[in-house]
Amino acid sequence: MLTRKQLDLLEYINKRVQRDGVPPSFDEMKEALDLRSKSGIHRLITALEERGFIRRLAHRARALEIVKLPESLGGAAAHGFQPRVIDGDRPDAPQPANAQPVEVHALELPLMGRIAAGVPIEAIAHASRNVAVPGAMVSGQGNHYALEVKGDSMIDAGINDGDVVVIRETSTADNGDIVVALVEDQEATLKRFFRRGNAIALEAANPAYETRVLPDDKVKVQGRLVGLIRTY
Known about the structure:
The chain has three helices and twelve strands. Strands 3, 4, 5, 6, 7, 8, 9, 10, 11 and 12 form a ten-stranded mixed beta sheet that branches. A two-stranded antiparallel ribbon has the order 1-2. With 232 residues, it is an alpha+beta fold. A hairpin with a 3-residue loop joins strand 8 (178-183) and strand 9. The chain starts with a helix and ends with a strand.
């Protein structure tokens, strides 16, 4: 059984992962649950981990994976992750008579090269190869493509150097969206998007990097982050 706060936190993390492809920060979780300090979030996450609902990865910022959900939240493992084996879930354990296999659909997307999460690099132009992604990750409308992340400026958003991000093509974005931004038609970068009057702010998720503020005619949105793939 989960407490109300544990359930609320698990639901919030799941919604953010489904929406953004990355988990929320501890500050965001604290605000969402209206707690006074992050120590309360640490206790809730520890409790969820002990009960097998989430997994934390050592030495990685904001590295939370949803392993499973209770029935009240859908009762299914999160897309892209495999549940941890616990007593009763082992292959040789008796299965319910009505248990049905789950079919997972995968799609191939073009990997368009590297995108800078740091100092902008040259704009991405040509696909180098294809990568397989869960079909549910690209269930929305529009074309999708994948990019390999280079740099650590989005590490506090759970996006690490070497990760592959899944992008939905779009030319518009809402404040706070993580986008592929084309700067002056020459440089492409992965940042959070904020509109400030007639200017666009491209904000990193790492305090070591300054926010870039540019005239809105110098920035073109090329797509929005919808998923993330990590190889261990």
